[in-house]
Structure formats: structure tokens, C-alpha cells
Amino acid sequence: MKRLVLMIIPALICGAVFTSCSSDKAQATDQLQGTKWKLKGIVDIQTSTLKELEPNDCDKCYTFVFDTDTTAWGYNCLNEMYIGGLNPIVIGGTKIGETGDAGICFDALFSVKSYSFDGKELKLFFNNNNNYLLYIPF
Question: For residue 127, what is the DSSP state?
């Protein structure tokens, strides 16, 4: 019996230590790695209205794919975009030659100050948190 207790107690302690080492931040960012996101539209927080951007029949337009927990690449419409970090948010790309509403999206992306992620929606907030770009998994 003593032997069993001596084996169980260290196992419980090790389990508690490993469990306490994981953080919410690590779990949230781990979930972004390997995920793919497509812009649903721009939300006005005051009115709760969603504005879809044109073109909306383009498979690669307004998309991001996270290759790590904080970096992603994708497309506005014609041009490749990237996220180089989430804290602070670093976004790169160009709007030269873009079509449709891509200029609106580009300007919004470059003014993003914060984000939220709940597994089903990725929100990139801009305009003093009055608007956000709403991305959904695809």
C-alpha cells in the first residue's frame, strides 16, 4: 500500500505541474496555426450591420492562412498580404492594382489595432474599435 501511495503522489504532482504550465494564450494561439479564414465583411459595431465587400465570388480574395500561431499569409484581391504578428499586429501588402472593394479592406487592415478570436470568428478591430473585419473559417 505504501508503495502504491508513493507512486501515485508523484504522478499527481507531475500532472498538476504540467497542467498549470499551459496558458490560455498558448491554447488560443495554437488554435490559429493551420487555420484558414475568409472575410465575411466589415461590421459597424454601433449599428451591428455587416457590409460585404466586392468581389464576393472570388475564392482566394480576402483570405488568410495561419502558418504559425501569430503569422499568416493570404490575399486581398490581386495582391498577397501577410500578418507578421498579433501583439502588436503587423500587416503587410500593397493595394496597387486592386479591384472592387479591396482598397477599403486594405485601408482597414492597415489600421487594425486589436483582435479577438473565439475559434469560430476572427475579428480585427479598427477605427477606434468602432468597426471590425469579420473573418470566418473556410
Answer: T
Please tell me the total count of domains within the chain: 1
Q: Are 112 and 91 in contact (CB under 8 A)?
A: yes
The H-assigned helical ranges of the chain are 2-21, 24-32, 102-109
User: What tens digit of pLDDT does each residue of 37-68 get?
Assistant: 999 999 999 999 999 999 999 999 999 999 99
Give the closest residue to 65 by CA, choosing from 86, 40, 82, 46.
82
Place of cell 469560430: 120
Q: Supply the range of the domain harboring residue 132.
A: 31-137
On whether residue 2 sits in a domain, the answer given is: no
CATH number at residue 106: 2.40.128.270
Q: What does pTM read for this prediction? A: 0.77
